[in-house]
Amino acid sequence: MMKLNTYIVEGGVGKCSSFTALVDKLTEKAGQPIQVYTPYVQCFANNPNVKLAFEQTIPLGDKRIMASDNIYYSEPYKSNFQFGNQHLIEAYCNLHDVEFDTSMVPKMFTDHLKPQVDKWKTDNKISEDYILVQFTGGQSGWVGGAANTPYNNTNPGRVYPQWLAQTVINTIKQKYPKCTIIDCTLPNEPAYAGTIKCNLHWSGLHELLKDARTFIGIDSCLQHFAASSKKRGIVIWGSTKWTQFGYTHHTNLQFHMGSKWNNNKFDANDPRNIMVEPEKIFNCFEGLYENYKEKKVRCAKE
After folding, report:
1. What pLDDT is stored for residue 76 in this prediction?
2. How many whole angstroms separate alpha carbon 187 and alpha carbon 148?
3. Nearest Cα to Cα of residue 239 among 159, 298, 119
4. In the prediction, which pLDDT does 145 show?
5. Residue 132 in 3-state DSSP?
6. Least enclosed by CB within 10 Å: which of 134, 186, 242, 263?
7. Rounded to an integer, what distance in angstroms lies between the CA atom of residue 12 and that of residue 299?
8. Where are the domains of the chain?
9. Does the pTM exceed 0.85?
10. What are phi and psi of 80, to 5 degrees?
11. Regions of the chain short of the pLDDT cut 70
12. What pLDDT is attached to residue 140?
């Protein structure tokens, strides 16, 4: 029997985009497309297996939601996820009785934004040779405004220090002067010499990634979008674990870690976690930039 199921999906952009990994299997279980009630409807826009996506300013008692057979809510951060052994997508699966496998990764649909993104690239004289960077993030609930709005990061341990980020950018520009570096952070976050600040809506970053050479980021929305767009990049990890939020096609870097995660070396409160040497980041970047090869996207588990 077909069921009309509505899922309440809260959290930031990265968390909501991660939930898109479940949509196909939830639709299969219900026998028809699902509905979603979320602060970030663009994560679910144009998904053929999403009947309607409701912005959370709409009352939960809206008649279209009340027409559901079931309304489901889950909060993975208040579940077995806290033990540190589950990937975020795996935690969502367990909470919604869906069989998890590592091939379940974010799936967003932004083809409709291509004309807008192409126009922005033309207006800003962006060449075909460009990369994206995101060294800050974590402004949950910040929906836009003046550039002088105070920057308040909810998890500063994820942020790559500004002076180190500038060193990475300077090194790239010195070696590859024709490479355009697009900074994918909000107006009130630090700016970097030698970059162009992207003022597209955040959903446009997913479309912008498709034609980028690669990207460098932290544990924030860009690395989740890159899993959906299948773009490989470099992710610098601080107070969070790539085995819980990351993907295998990326080059995952953390001060204490080698190529595989070692939980015995991890302390979320250690400020050194994020302090990966700029030279190491550049060397990894150069390998991707010069010899980019596609790689299967999987949830990282080691």
Report:
1. 98
2. 8
3. 159
4. 47
5. strand
6. 263
7. 19
8. 5-95, 111-290
9. yes
10. -60, -15
11. 140-148
12. 58
pLDDT per residue over 138-149, tens digit each? 875 445 545 667
Task: Give the amino acid at 158.
Answer: R
CATH class of this structure's domain 111-290: alpha beta
The answer to whether residues 9 and 17 touch, using CB atoms and an 8 Å cutoff, is no
The SS3 call for residue 290 is helix
> For the sheet containing 234-236, what is the strand order?
196-197, 180-183, 130-134, 215-218, 234-236, 251-253
Q: Output the six-digit token pair for 186.
A: 């909000």
Q: Output the DSSP codes for the chain.
A: ----EEEE--S-HHHHHHHGGGHHHHHHHHTS-EEEEES-GGGTTT-TTEEEEEETTS-TT-HHHHT-SEEEE--GGGTGGGGS-S-HHHHHHHHTT----TT-------GGGHHHHHHHHHHTT--SSEEEEE-----TT-----TTSPP--S-GGGPPPHHHHHHHHHHHHHH-TT-EEEE-S-TTSPP-TT-EE--S-THHHHHHHHT-S-EEEESSHHHHHHHHHT---EEE-SSS-HHHH-BTTSEEE-TT--SS--GGG--TT-TTTT---HHHHHHHHHHHHHS-------B---
Amino acid (one-letter) located at 46: N
- Give the pair of three-digit tokens for residue 12: 């930031």
CB 199 within 8 A of CB 187: yes
List the one residue out of 77, 84, 85, 16 whose CA is nearest residue 50. 16
Three-state SS string over 113-150 comes to HHHHHHHHHHHCCCCCCEEEEECCCCCCCCCCCCCCCC
* Block residue for tokens 């379940």: 104
